[in-house]
Amino acid sequence: MDDTKLLIGGEWVSPPSAATFVTTDPADGTELAVCVEAGATEVDAAVAAARAALADPAWRDLPPAARARMLWRLADLLEEHCAELAEIESRDNGMPVGDARAFGVPAAAEHLRYFAGWCTKIEGAVAPVAFPDTLHYTRREPVGVCALIVPWNGPLLQACWKLAPALACGNTVILKPAEQTPLSALRLGELVREAGLPDGVVNILTGGPATGRLLVEHDGVDKVSFTGSTEVGRQIVRASAGNLKRLTLELGGKAPSIITDDVDLDAAVQGNVAGAMFNSGQVCAAFARLYVHRRRLDEFTEKFAAAAAAMPLGRGMDAGTRLGPLISEAHLARVDGYVRTAIDEGGEVVTGGQRAGGALAAGSFYEPTVVTGVTDDMTLAREEVFGPVVPIMPFDDYDEVVERSNALEYGLAASIWTQDLSTAHRLAARIRAGAIFINMLHVPDVAAPWGGFKASGWGREMGRYALDAYTEVKGVWTHLLDRADTTGREN
């Protein structure tokens, strides 16, 4: 892997005039690599390469089964290099290496295998139209050149969950990882070449928001798939208007978790600590506001705070680490700002509430934090923190908690913890969110749809729903002539 180069048209190129940026280890701030900041020239070149590959018979006319074998081969390569890729993720992102090795890399491979299976099953249909003697059928065809813009909180996995359906449907892509975590995407580019995909089918550009903006505005890009903040999602909608790009947007979240009075309290504490603190809370579907029935509030809060405080912080590469660092010093300052605001607005910090000191002082580590005394109008209850900071709030009845859960602009995910399945399913039907998790963690599966309601996004990824995101439907009409129409003689 050469971190000072870009993958364009099947070749690693190093633009002599391009700017560069440094990616660092959030555990101690040390430099990991110097990467290229792709500009207009590099974006134009990548788009041209992707468009050429889209029209090249080597990809355009490749049998679906052969395309499937390439995706399967790429999945095998990810698994063969699992330990290496997990270490890259841990050093660049800060996540515990055990999580990357046990979940992140295998899940990325599973996305590739799942969509390899769809390559041979992307079908059209015949519709019985009203016109007599007319055959109508549909074809699913690639959207075209797809810009895949990936966030920093799960770089390799989210790259593959966009890449896999895009390639399965016959598109070509330009992958832009987040500037904070570019290294796993660059290693993925090497494995893409080893898997035998034709030149230009996958291009990789590193860079920051300016690079992403160039891709979104480019008339040679037919689709953008973006995961990130709601505000940036709104900017993409505006910037994509030039050629009316197809968009898939997975945006912000503020997932409520509802803990009922009949709950298995210990199971709910364990599940909610994991759901709120996984990857140091840097997860779009993290349990970000806990609504606990008032009859169980004190006991739940006491146990939850004790369990959160006991979670070991450490470098992602250290054995036993449960919480790694936040992605950067800037993000740590933002997270801490939310805690300071919560205190100013009347909240009480039960545990945590500050950056970690001692041996971890040089890194961007923040203590797992629990805040009580929070009301729905306070900043901590309304805005996405994206860190290990959780407000715990009481509720008294289900109508009330549904209304409060639905009050925000977000609707990505929600969680319900109860031993009464009637209650669970009634609540699930009323909560406005794209995924509801009952008595379980917020772990999406490649076979199930993923995406949000309201300001949490447009469209769905994963499962058969991703085929809609990466194909256009074409209708073909044929009037069935009789012989008299063509020869002038009766049949």
Automatic annotation (TrEMBL):
Ranges for domain Aldehyde dehydrogenase: 12-475
Annotated family: Belongs to the aldehyde dehydrogenase family.
Protein's name according to its UniProt entry: Aldehyde dehydrogenase DhaS
Superkingdom of source: Bacteria
InterPro entries to which the protein is assigned, alphabetical: Ald_DH/histidinol_DH (IPR016161), Ald_DH_C (IPR016163), Ald_DH_CS_GLU (IPR029510), Ald_DH_N (IPR016162), Aldehyde_DH_dom (IPR015590)
Acetylation is among the record's keywords: no
Keywords: Oxidoreductase
The keyword Transmembrane belongs to this UniProt entry's keyword annotation: no
Catalytic residues in the record: 250
Organism: Actinomadura meridiana
